[in-house]
Write a structure and sequence with these properties.
Radius of gyration: 19 Å
Number of helices: 10
Number of domains: 1
Distance between the termini: 39 Å
Strand order of the largest sheet: 2-3-7-8-11-12-13-14
Order of helices and strands: EHHEEHHEHHHEEHEEEEEEHHEE
Structural class: alpha+beta
Low-confidence stretches: 5-11, 13-40
CATH superfamily: ApbE-like domains
Number of strands: 14
Mean pLDDT: 86
Helix content: 25-40%
Amino acid sequence: MKQHAGTSPRIGRRRFLQIIAVTGASGALWQLGLRDKIMTGHAVRQSRAMMGTQINLIVYGPDRDTCEDAIQSTFTRMEELIAMLSRHNSESKLSVLNQTGALERPANDIQKVLLLASEISKATEGAFDVTMLPLQDLYNHSNGGKTLPSKETLNSALELVDYREIVIMNDAIKLGKEGMAVTLDGIGKGYIVDQGVAALKAKGFDNVYVEAGGDLMVSGAKAGSKPWQIGIRNPRHEQSQKLLVLELTDRAVATSGDYMQPFTPDLRHHHIIDPRTGISPPELASATVTAPTVALADGLATAAMVMGPEKTMDIFGSLSDCECLLIGKNLKQYQSSGFNS
């Protein structure tokens, strides 16, 4: 297997289903409906601080002990993935790739994440790009983003941003330019949530909720076979706007917003940066995506913020099983045809 990024702007249905398979999650199967009726046992809730945020799990099962055992093994699986995929861990496989420009005998999980990232990059014409760590570092070193980098330093960082320079093979992953570096901030958390759900399902728990910092997957249903209810946050909480509530089963939800990590009080500059220009996109306040997996929803939500409403709606028209809600900085809403239907 060798993957070198190309330029295809669309994901057809067949290719899209291949992407779902790549993530290792069983989201495509869940779309067929509930596999089992909801068990009328215990609902066990647990939270844990991980990935710089809080992970929340809700598991329905026949008794508390079996639920808690499954939750513990799920947290263990998620911690293993964090140790591998976090750029903040100097000994992680991702850090080795960034430090040396190559990773020999890469683990299956890091290959899957990078392959999915590449497909999202192609579909969004580069609006999503995991090689943008040099840009992120530039802003972090510019007074936490409060001072905009100079045009010269920005252009130097942009020369190192190009998802097409990641080469993924069975026995190695390589970065095509010296100084390139990868961040999985826009997709890694989603992949870890997906794998948490997969771990619970492997133990026979089909009715679960797994959430990390607002990005989540719901599987099955709540007690009484009721769908899960997920609220969509108003990106301008100080302004009055009715909260949209989604009723979902077997679905992932991810939201990106300018309010999450702002660099300036007016929210013009924030942590979401267009990897093609090096500047925060001007149109949207938030983008919420529903998809078969959280990794896919996570990456597409980030890309939507970059692309803006017109381009996003055009691209989502060709994506299978993905829907979006976009909210502009003026709070104007844009919805894809199947969102919340």
